[in-house]
Amino acid sequence: MPAVPSIPLFKVLPNVLRTARRPIEVFQEYHQIYGDNLLLSVGGSRRTHLTADPEVIQHVLQRNHRNYDKSEIQATQMAKYLGKGLLTNTGQPWLTQRRLIQPGFHRKRLDSLVTEMRAVIERQCAQLDAARAAGSTLSLHGFTRSAVFRIIARAIFTDGFSEQETMELNRTMDAIQAFIIYPVRMPFLRKPLRWIGREGKYLAMATSIRQRLQERIDERRAGGAQDDLLQMLLDSRYEDDGTPMADEQLIDEIMILFAAGHETSANALAWTIWLLLQHPEELAKVKAEIAAAKTLGPLDLDGVKNLPYLTQVIEESMRLYPPAWITDRVALGPDVANGYAIDTHTVVGIFIYGLHHNPRYWPEPERFWPERMSAAAKKDRHPYAFLPFGAGPRLCIGNHFAMLEMQLFLAQVLGDYTLELTTPAAEVGVKPYITLHMDREVGVRVC
Ligand code: HEM
């Protein structure tokens, strides 16, 4: 059995701070030296099998998924602030919740969300009209982030939050998510963060969001039923005893839907627009496709099928800049994956960014090349070489929701407006928080 190359501690330790700040750069360097699978201690403590190998990833996420659970990063550290919703829950409680929530993301449900999504996007485009009229610039990420936060807020609470409350909620969620990376990436900072009151500050923020959510839930119970995700969660009943979800659990699930469902899509949209503004040929193709699709009928769940090239562009953008750039599992028992031994308790770091840039599966991995996402090209590739939404039983529950909102958003924005970058020559790098951000503010002008 081949041994997984292990990076000696004396090589990992000097890189601890650089790994905390620029983990992607460091992990990519390790993969170049040691291959697709390697062992290291992240943050100087956890024994991690880092992998950019689609065979190992398929084994862990799908073939032998029962031998793996979420590590303490998601199940404890993130759960502390965001609660035990689908993303952070584990074992049988996760499965029970997944079965209950899955119908909320079925096609019929998405179909009824199209009108809401389009209404939010249209209102959001008023910002583009205003910027054009005033000759002012917009923050690209700020624009996409507020759009998708409004979409997820409307999908959960059709009647819920005022505009001001939505934006406040957005700011608070973003602040919590930005803070979480410190205790996650630098375990040695956990106690100091508690001592200096930082942990308490963000826990208090999470508590204030939870209180607001509880108020909205109480209001809904007192008022009439609506056609939204909250209602679906309120009306659902556990198969075994027919009871409804407890409010604490309901709030956990809503927290997670907000957290998992907005930064990811907001980053994917910002990267996609930024890429297209630098690739005029591909942008022209996208615009022509959108114009043609609009003549064929309304852009709804069926209408977006007339946007195959735009879909390839979104996929290629998520290959280059996967919003969820890494995830992990911990081995419950000893295992062998693609010939490599994985010991009990080993954390498997599924390095999605590394997988998507692996030259063994992606020729010219740094090139933006949407044609490689055509159906024909996909047939010849390892099915686990492209995993923006994860895979196996814990595949992203919001994957179709996300694709739909991104297609609708881009069709509207790119179809109706001409955008340009305020500083087209400026380099933009990656900033890996929990999701993959741009490392600087990118401004756009509306012509
Ligand atoms: C471009 C957008 C998105 C990307 C790239 C993305 C990516 C992912 C990935 C990679 C996972 C799996 C994590 C793992 O296996 O450890 C995941 C899980 C999840 N995502 Fe998404 N996501 C996106 C949008 C959304 C949206 C819009 C929602 C909700 C409306 C959502 C809700 C969730 C939830 C609840 C889970 C946990 C599922 C479970 O474990 O059962 N995501 N997402």
TrEMBL record:
<dbReference type="InterPro" id="IPR050196">
    <property type="entry name" value="Cytochrome_P450_Monoox"/>
</dbReference>
<dbReference type="GO" id="GO:0020037">
    <property type="term" value="F:heme binding"/>
</dbReference>
<keyword id="KW-0479">Metal-binding</keyword>
<dbReference type="Pfam" id="PF00067">
    <property type="entry name" value="p450"/>
</dbReference>
<protein>
    <submittedName>
        <fullName>Cytochrome P450</fullName>
    </submittedName>
</protein>
<keyword id="KW-0408">Iron</keyword>
<keyword id="KW-0503">Monooxygenase</keyword>
<dbReference type="GO" id="GO:0004497">
    <property type="term" value="F:monooxygenase activity"/>
</dbReference>
<dbReference type="InterPro" id="IPR017972">
    <property type="entry name" value="Cyt_P450_CS"/>
</dbReference>
<feature type="binding site" description="axial binding residue">
    <location>
        <position position="396"/>
    </location>
    <ligand>
        <name>heme</name>
    </ligand>
</feature>
<dbReference type="InterPro" id="IPR001128">
    <property type="entry name" value="Cyt_P450"/>
</dbReference>
<comment type="similarity">
    <text>Belongs to the cytochrome P450 family.</text>
</comment>
<keyword id="KW-0349">Heme</keyword>
<dbReference type="GO" id="GO:0005506">
    <property type="term" value="F:iron ion binding"/>
</dbReference>
<keyword id="KW-0560">Oxidoreductase</keyword>
<dbReference type="InterPro" id="IPR036396">
    <property type="entry name" value="Cyt_P450_sf"/>
</dbReference>
<dbReference type="InterPro" id="IPR002401">
    <property type="entry name" value="Cyt_P450_E_grp-I"/>
</dbReference>
<dbReference type="GO" id="GO:0016705">
    <property type="term" value="F:oxidoreductase activity, acting on paired donors, with incorporation or reduction of molecular oxygen"/>
</dbReference>
